[in-house]
Design a protein that fits this description.
Residues 667-981 form the CHAT domain. Residues 36-57 are annotated as: Disordered. It comes from Roseomonas alba. This protein is of the alpha+beta class. It has 38 helices and 23 strands. The strands form 4 sheets. Strands 1, 2, 3, 4, 5, 6, 7, 8 and 9 form a 9-stranded antiparallel sheet that branches. A 6-stranded mixed sheet has the order 16-15-17-21-22-23, with helices on both faces. Strands 12-11-10-13-14 form a 5-stranded mixed sheet. Helix 9 (262-275) runs antiparallel to helix 10, helix 10 (284-298) packs parallel to helix 13 and helix 21 (509-524) packs antiparallel against helix 22 (528-553). The longest helix is centred in the middle third of the chain and has 26 residues, at 528-553. The chain is globular, with a radius of gyration of 33 Å. The two termini are 50 Å apart. The relative contact order is 0.06.
């Protein structure tokens, strides 16, 4: 069941606010850097010195210079010259304590000072340090200058420059004259001159800052990319198991968790937890607890989140000296110390996140008190960033909503939107909060104010090309529906606005997947070179995701894997450049939502689009037809509709007792809810395009009943398929994009088919499913029998399409290696008639798979499975891919009404324009008849949709005549559905 957005958006980790500021040393930008040459650092990066901000000091400061190396915009070092005595005792005292040392300790952790000499034999004290932010090696020097003590610190590779400037040497000098640098010898292990330099540190901090900014705007996918790149820089330089990589690792983990990629996030959280105790930043262990709490919230486990967040609060508070977060003051001493500032911000966020968890566990009053504590922590420290205040106000509003205080919640949300509008104007946090405010306004009957909030938020969503969860969008539709009923003259425009608003709902994974594949087709505009370039970019993206996931899951250093990632990144950059040149509109095509006018232009005469959106308690159905939009409210929510879908499917699928009695009442009730309210707009439409939502994705719409019918007289029942040819699409965007791809494949050959597989042996299945872990799976898989009827199905189809027997791959020849060797992009129809296995059916099978014959000599049945991830690597240009197997379009174990299996999505990615798939295990004879008659009809001018409808009507009409009467049951004729267009007509091919 979907939850209100507050339960998700309010728990997002504001990672950047829990870090020491990346500009702890810098105040300048690239344009302002100009100074004198300072030679090169230990990595031969050119450096410049210019006047800088003085460090705190116990003595009068004569001048301070900042050093910039390698084009980095952050100072690589700072050198401060002071006046006064510079005896050995003075150097010891400055290195051990005082204002400069305290200032240094706020930013780095240092070992005890070591007595040494620098260039020219000048006495010095060397401190080997580690930066708290990032864990980079850092050095500090106290030495004797011309007028008194000199203090300096910087990245380790800047030490040669520090020495030259501290001793007054020219930039052209070497390490010094008149004596070598003992300090350099001591520091050589930390210099790592060949491993990193100022540019690496700068790149890391730039990526961390970018990740923070993207996280704050709730663009978690892009933040993931930034943090992943930052982690890669660190691991390359510091090593994979360096404790200081935990910071970037945690940031990456929480952004994966925010995307509900929970397993990937858990791996990184576990790795970070083992590294955190030794990290230079003392706030890292507290952050581990904090982010584990956020992860529990993202996993809908608020009860587990509460103790984790409490422990995080305790750990953060321990880093705040003298209970400063609990007393009044201006917070100056807290802001001055990055570690303490990090702890204060972390403490405030952990309290706020715990308030979210308390609200979700029914303790809203306690949550409000905790939000007040969170705000007080920030106020007392003098730290009230607009982003954090906005989140606190939104969390407090969530508690008010639970307590029934609608007006108070609306006011808090409007204030929060204002704060987000300052901190991140025009970004997702502002849009989310505006929708939440509109939801409260509509509940209190203030429709005009609600519409202002919704429309403002919708403008942000369209501009940023992002979506929101369904419940918030349903509230917007509710307001528009009320307004349309109250103002009939404005109803047409308001109904069209309702359709556009529905497209702002977050799409399912199927919709996103198919939209990406269809975008490739649309971008190509029939040009194979363009299609290949876009496909190359998508393949590169997928390869990188897989490699990153492999690295996240692996243990220890893996240079070979890092080299593969680096090579893949280069390939991806090259592919993106090719797409930018070949298909500049690709990104816009991929991401853009559609309005009613765009859909209307894509529909043919006599064609209508039916779509719907289901909220928790109510939903809306909409039709686009002849340029007009009709919309109606339905009184049931997602769970109630899901129950009806379950009844229909349960009575359609073969059970232990054979073919069950069909639930005509549930099939009629679904038609009454979803189709009947729009009957006037649908009347006369020959072709009906259905874009279902949620659990309705698991339903073949052709078996809905227009009128009550008897389960004993199904042949003449008023099925919806008798009125319309039906095409299913995951979203209206998918329809528009597929239609832009043209009407058909350009492949030269009509058909290739595979069937009549030879099952693997019991021994092969046993080796694929070890008895100690997967014994039950082995027994179930061994029960997969041969499908002799598929031989006739494939041979008949090949003959019908004039392909000849050589295009029918049957029996022992039907192996996965043989299939992969075929030029599948040369065939307009690709037919796979065999078993399909889904993860829900076999517990040890992690991917949906199609079963083929084992290759000769195969020891295991593994080689007989064509997995979804392997389908992604196929290259197709097919009007139609026929998957006449078991459950290829079924739920696939994904839940939430996700009806397309991973196999169906994979074939779209591979290049199919249409899929003919089955929603449940099919009858052999009925499947052969359905496929053959569909292909026969397509030999004329029939579209794929009309051809499939004709085959299904033939079975219904002939049931009890030339076919068994039982064939009128939906088990026989209804499982096949067309997803996507397939062929859309035109002259028959020869």
């Amino acid at each position: 069941m979907r939850r209100p957005l507050l339960a998700i958006g309010a728990v997002l980790g504001l990672f950047g606010c829990t870090e020491p500021p990346p500009d702890a040393y810098a105040t300048r930008t690239v344009g302002s850097i100009a100074g004198e040459p300072a030679g090169t650092d230990a990595r031969n990066e050119a450096c410049q010195a210019q006047p800088g901000r003085a460090s705190p000091a116990d003595r009068p400061v004569l001048r301070t210079r900042e050093v910039y190396c390698g084009g980095w915009t952050q100072p690589a070092a700072r050198i401060t010259e002071m006046s006064g005595s510079a005896t050995s005792a003075d150097l010891d005292a400055i290195a051990a304590a005082g204002l400069w040392r305290n200032w240094l300790d706020q930013r780095v952790t240092c070992a005890a000072p070591t007595r040494t000499t620098i260039a020219g034999g000048t006495e010095a004290r060397l401190l080997a340090c580690t930066r708290r932010a990032g864990g980079w090696p850092h050095v500090a020097i106290v030495t004797r200058g011309a007028s008194g003590p000199v203090v300096a610190d910087g990245v380790a590779t800047a030490l040669p420059v520090i020495e030259r400037l501290a001793t007054g040497q020219s930039s052209g000098s070497g390490s010094g004259s008149g004596g070598r640098s003992a300090a350099l010898e001591l520091a050589v292990a930390r210099l790592s001159a060949d491993a990193f330099g100022a540019t690496d540190v700068g790149r890391y901090e730039q990526l961390m800052t970018l990740g923070r900014d993207l996280n704050q705007t709730e663009n978690f996918a892009a933040a993931e990319d930034a943090y992943r790149a930052a982690l890669a820089v660190q691991e390359r330089v510091l090593g994979r198991d360096n404790p200081n990589t935990a910071t970037a690792m945690l940031a990456l983990a929480v952004n994966l968790s925010n995307q509900k990629r929970l397993a990937e996030a858990q791996l990184l959280l576990d790795r970070a937890a083992t590294l955190a105790p030794q990290a230079a930043d003392p706030a890292t262990p507290a952050r581990v607890l904090h982010y584990r709490g956020l992860h529990a919230l993202n996993a809908d486990q608020p009860g587990q989140a509460i103790p984790l967040l409490q422990q995080a609060e305790t750990a953060y508070a321990a880093l705040i000296p003298g209970g400063a977060a609990g007393r009044e003051g201006d917070g100056t001493e807290l802001v001055a110390d990055p570690v303490v500032q990090s702890a204060v911000l972390g403490l405030a966020e952990a309290k706020r996140n715990r308030a979210v968890a308390l609200t979700r566990t029914g303790h809203a009053s306690e949550a409000q008190d905790l939000v007040a504590e969170s705000r007080q922590v920030l106020r007392r420290a003098g730290l009230e960033p607009n982003m954090m205040v906005g989140r606190a106000l939104r969390t407090e509003a969530g508690a008010d909503i639970r307590l029934g205080r609608t007006e108070a919640a609306a006011q808090l949300l409007e204030r929060a939107a204002g704060r987000f509008g300052i901190a991140a104007a025009g970004e997702r946090p502002e849009a989310v909060t505006l929708f939440l405010a509109g939801q409260q306004r509509i509940r209190s009957g203030r429709r005009a104010e609600a519409l202002v909030a919704f429309r403002t938020g919708a403008g942000i969503l369209r501009a940023r090309q992002i979506g929101l969860p369904v419940p918030l969008i349903v509230a917007y539709l509710d307001a528009l529906d009320q307004e349309a009923n109250a103002s009939p003259g404005q109803a047409p425009a308001l109904r069209a606005e309702m359709f556009g608003a529905a497209q702002l709902a977050q799409r399912s994974s199927t919709a996103r997947f198919v939209q990406q594949a269809s975008a490739r087709l649309g971008a190509s505009e029939g040009n194979p070179a363009v299609q290949g370039a876009v496909r190359g970019l998508q393949d590169a993206d997928r390869e990188l995701r897989e490699l990153f996931a492999e690295r996240d899951a692996s243990g220890g250093q893996n240079q070979a894997l890092d080299d593969r990632i680096a090579a893949a990144q280069q390939r991806r950059a090259q592919a993106e450049g090719e797409v930018a040149a070949a298909a500049p509109g690709y990104r816009q095509l991929l991401l853009a939502s559609v309005d009613a006018d765009s859909v209307a232009r894509s529909l043919s005469r006599g064609e209508a689009l039916l779509t719907m959106l289901l909220g928790p308690r109510e939903g809306f159905v909409m039709v686009v037809r002849d340029g007009r939009v009709d919309a109606r409210r339905i009184p049931l929510g997602e769970e109630a509709v899901a129950a009806l879908v379950h009844r229909v499917r349960q009575s359609s699928e073969l059970g232990a007792g054979g073919v069950p009695r069909f639930d005509t009442q549930a099939a009629f009730e679904l038609h009454r809810l979803l189709v009947a309210p729009l009957a006037a707009s649908l009347d006369g439409a020959e072709n009906l395009v259905v874009a279902p939502d949620g659990p309705l994705l698991a339903l073949p719409f052709g078996l809905l009943l227009e009128q009550p019918a008897s389960p004993d007289a199904l042949g003449g029942a008023p099925w919806l398929i008798r009125r319309h040819a039906i095409v299913h699409v995951p979203s209206p965007q998918t329809l528009v994009t597929l239609r832009a791809a043209g009407t058909g494949s350009t492949a030269p050959n009509p058909y290739i088919g595979f069937g009549d597989f030879v099952p693997p042996s019991a021994g092969q299945f046993a080796r694929a499913f070890p008895a100690n872990r997967c014994g039950t799976d082995a027994r179930l898989a061994t029960g997969l029998g041969r499908l002799p009827g598929t031989r006739a199905e494939v041979l008949t189809s090949s003959q019908l399409l004039g392909a000849g027997p050589s295009r029918a791959i049957l029996g022992a020849e039907f192996t996965i290696p043989f299939l992969k060797r075929q030029p599948l992009n040369q065939f307009r129809v690709v037919h796979l008639a065999t078993h399909a296995l889904l993860p829900g059916e076999l517990s040890c099978l992690t991917e949906p798979s199609i079963v083929a014959s084992p290759p000769a000599g195969a020891a295991s049945a593994d080689a007989s499975f064509l997995k979804a991830s392997e389908v992604l690597d196929l290259k197709m240009d097919a009007d139609l891919v026929i998957l006449s197997a078991c459950n290829t379009g079924g739920p696939g174990g994904e839940g939430g009404g996700e009806a397309l299996s991973g196999l169906a999505r994979a074939f779209f990615y591979a290049g199919a324009r249409g899929l003919m798939v089955t929603h449940w295990a099919v009858d052999d004879a009925a499947a052969a008849l359905t496929v053959a008659d569909t292909l026969r009809r397509q030999q004329g001018r029939a579209t794929s949709a009309a051809a499939l409808r004709g085959a299904q009507l033939l079975i219904l009409d002939e049931a009890g005549r030339n076919l068994p009467a039982a064939f009128a049951h939906p088990y026989y004729w209804a499982p096949f559905v067309l997803i996507g267009d397939g062929r859309r007509g035109g002259q028959p091919r020869t």
